[in-house]
């Protein structure tokens, strides 16, 4: 692909701020800045590459001084995009950045599409696709751990692992091809044994990498959790306690329906999207209020349901109704109000919900929250020691490609075991090679690439 136009965008977030940055990338960047910038030391900006130069942006067509700025020129190819880049640090706020951007566009740059700077870094070969995707994950990371995973991916940890695997596939393919060329006689046992042994090893490491994808997805996208229970069991109290513990109320986004509120929590590094059915009128039955279909939809979307019961009241029909609706979900059962005399038949609950975690709490006396957090964290890390590695499959696209690669490898192994013809076996290994290559972007089409970068923010 040949890129010859020059792009520009505001690289900082919208709104009032200390500084705003307008970024320009492409062969015309230097010409454009030369046209609109006057340095206080009267030097040309390209004389002092990679140094911030103090001066003013001018619209010389009207002789208008636009803003006081620091500008920097970075010469290709050692830049973010591998092209010439100019960055103008002006005053933050909508007006200065907008006016400077407009001027830059008038001088011949084109407004960059979302993610286009990073896309150029990818197309110009500075980073691969997994690394490019990590850039956006870094920006949107909700917890430190999520950030660390994305950062390692940007540094190439995932790409390196995938490349190692592809190298092994290539080596196997070479053996297979040699065998095809000598296919007069039967393929010798030694070659088959060798292929089998190597393939089983590869299968193991691919399976291991794939096993990180559940945790990875949660760290990247958050664990969506629904709190459910009949009126007065303590849903709102739980929400408030968790919010207080987590300290990090990031946002309060109104959900898709009026009745549902979403809160973002950070529990020991795990981003949790708490979907709060407490927003549904307390006095009414949740199922009646939002309808069976809708509540099912709500539960279906959830990764986890926290089901609350009241220790001071007997089981009611409403409890049973809820159990019926959530019985196939991942559930944590909270028996709340344990400070009050018990009237709940716990044995019966165990019977109804099977092998599920049951936690006893008294939110009033702040008992049981630590245990809830621990159960949650263990669920996400599946009991493995947490944070031992940041190498994870966090992206569904990567997971899907790795899954297909693993399936093809399994088919290849099966074909070897059955002593199928070598050119038959070869097809499977070529698929493994291709599918793995999708992760790093080696074997993906333009459409997919466009689609990925379209989800980036402007100016990155
Ligand atoms: P919701 O309707 O499920 O959201 O329940 P709320 O969180 O609004 O709680 C209903 C009532 O139960 C409130 O008066 C709370 O103070 C009280 N409550 C919540 N948790 C406990 C608890 O652990 N023990 C006792 N005794 N009362 C609680
Ligand atoms: Zn409530």
UniProtKB/TrEMBL annotation:
Gene3D superfamilies cross-referenced by the UniProt entry: P-loop containing nucleotide triphosphate hydrolases, Probable tRNA modification gtpase trme, domain 1, tRNA modification GTPase MnmE domain 2
Binding site for Mg(2+): 236, 257
Subcellular location: Cytoplasm
Function summary: Exhibits a very high intrinsic GTPase hydrolysis rate. Involved in the addition of a carboxymethylaminomethyl (cmnm) group at the wobble position (U34) of certain tRNAs, forming tRNA-cmnm(5)s(2)U34.
Cross-referenced Pfam families: MMR_HSR1 (PF01926), MnmE_helical (PF12631), TrmE_N (PF10396)
Ranges of residues in domain TrmE-type G: 222-381
Co-factor: note: Binds 1 potassium ion per subunit.
Binding site for GTP: 232-237, 251-257, 276-279
EC number: 3.6.-.-
tRNA processing recorded as keyword: yes
Binding site for (6S)-5-formyl-5,6,7,8-tetrahydrofolate: 23, 87, 126, 460
Family: Belongs to the TRAFAC class TrmE-Era-EngA-EngB-Septin-like GTPase superfamily. TrmE GTPase family.
Keyword Lipid metabolism among UniProt keywords: no
Assembly behavior: Homodimer. Heterotetramer of two MnmE and two MnmG subunits.
Protein name (Swiss-Prot/TrEMBL): tRNA modification GTPase MnmE
CC annotations in GO: cytosol
Positions with a binding annotation for K(+): 232, 251, 253, 256
UniProt entry keywords in alphabetical sequence: Cytoplasm, GTP-binding, Hydrolase, Magnesium, Metal-binding, Nucleotide-binding, Potassium, tRNA processing
Gene Ontology biological-process entries: tRNA methylation; tRNA wobble uridine modification
Organism, scientific name: Alkaliphilus pronyensis
Record GO terms (molecular function): GTP binding; GTPase activity; identical protein binding; metal ion binding
